[in-house]
Amino acid sequence: MNAIFSVNQLDLLFKNSSDAVFFMERVNDGYRYIFVNETAIDLINVNPTGKLLEQVVPSHLAKTIIQNYNLTLQNQKQMEYEDYTYDKMEVRKQRTTSIPVFLNEKTYILAITKEVSLGRDLEDKYLFMRSLHSSSFISTLLVSNDMHLLEANPTFIHEFSICMEEAHSQSLFDMKFMDSKSVKTLKKYINRVQNGESIQSKMLYFIDKNNERRCFTASFSSLTSNDETIAVFIMLHEITEFIKQEQALRTASHGLEMFKNAISTVADVIFTDVNGVITDINERVIKNTGYSREEIIGNTHHIFNSGTHNKEFFTNLWNTVKEGNVWRDEVCNRKKNGEIYWVDSTIVPLKNELGKIEQFFTVQYNITSEKQLLSELYKIEHIFRAITDNTNDFIVVTDSFGKIKYASPSYLRKLGYEEVELIGTPYEDLLMPESMGIWQEALNPKEIDLVKELKIELLLHKKDNSPIWTEGSYTMSLDLSQHEISEIVMVSREITERKELEDKLTYLAYHDSLTQLGNRRKLYKDFPMIQNEAILSDTSIAIFYLDGDNFKQVNDLHGHDVGDEFLKQFGKSLVKSVRQEDLVVRLGGDEFLIVFTGLSNSETERVIQIEQIMNRIKENLDIGWRIRGVHFSPTVSIGISIYPQHSECLDDLIDLADQALYQAKQSSQYQYCISDV
Asked: Is this structure's pTM higher than 0.70?
């Protein structure tokens, strides 16, 4: 293999790694597997060596992987991305590090994938609760917004012989189990749920593995992320036998009795007269309610009333059936022991040969488990809302353009805004200029990571324009139909006091505590930038090493307080003598150092510039200052070294300037000496 690594080298490095390792060659617009380790083979359940990525991975997953690999090559640096996949009724997250490799005019990708723990946000809890049905007789489906089957529970997979690997690569409506007459209806229901509706007890047909047409009642719920649907969850309750028996009933001479017997095994059956008095029931009613036949017969449906529904609900019910129409809805009933249960109830008026209603026929299917699931979801959502509304953390949801869709009350309390001033407003309107670039990078990531929480520090301004620092993390939500960012969720907390303390500590670390001038640490921190600027501008730098003449006498004659004030004033005089871009540093005691930038590379011109600098220093020191009635106008000796003529090393330049200072001190006052190295 003509690559930067041989197969043997890769095998030695990654054979026993717990992370999945893939080494890929760029081929036209795709990628071919060159090497994979054993963990990678276990992850994708096949040895893909020699094959193209699209031949191994489902098309919708391959598209995302190729996009991330292309970004890695485009940016020519290591990148990370995470994906969020469904696998056998489990939600899994993986983080992949992709590394570009360029050799011999060929391009490669080294990808290392590890599984990461799953965040338990609202959507994950929804999926977790859905998994309660994984072993149930109820079939469940999870359908993406682009109409692909993401998941089906074992019951449905077995009965309809589904291969989930194949399912991921084709539309739901092209799959073998779809009944052609139900396609249009199913599309309509899914679209309605995507638009915010909740749909219950709709009839659908599917073709099973034996090519038999089977009938289900379907309930649809949306899987939401921040009030937007990202998938549709479908629960199916089979009624095939009931339908078959109902069809047989139509040809039977004793239809009513046969109909009652046919559905007795799958539903509660109740007959009432035209006044609503119960005249007959099947055994399931007795079993499911706890009442005896004697307690129910002769009573009305009021015996099961839970008090959940208002008077108008029942008025509408009776008005519908008495007009000869079928009524259907969900009803909350109460058992004899007080336990609440929900049913999908249908009431059919039965007429005689003259068309007059003689009795009412009621069929009820228990849907308590489905209602409990939805109830738990509502509770979770309510708890989430209670937490966000009462926390001191800043919680905000924006669209992909950064416009605020939701802001927690902490934004109102701490920043002083009204809710109407925030909703629909670009989040950047809350930012100080220093944080604009950071926020724009968050809105326009080089790669989209749907799982990883990214850290961010932002400087905001309150309504009164006072600053407030926040630190937090943000995650991105993906529009499954468009495969692009739909929302950004950010949770932050205030760190203003911490930032102020950090700024103070940083200042103290790089400044002399007496004179407030830069110290030796600041000199070494700033010099690489000064040096780089000199290279770019093709100029020289002068290092002035200053030592005060007879400064010790100030302490001896006037005391340390005056001595300290003397050094402060001396530092101010030096700052006054230089430009803003020059650096004045106190090395310690009465030793100071000045870095002058932008000097000429011509020695003749540079000597003139140095003379001008020396004159400014001398003039300001001659003016001097007064402390406690005493006038001071000190003198100094100065040693000078030049970058890059004398050296490119800062330590060497300081040593050379110090040596030149020693020579200057051998001369008279106000003397300076340039290193002769």
From this structure: no
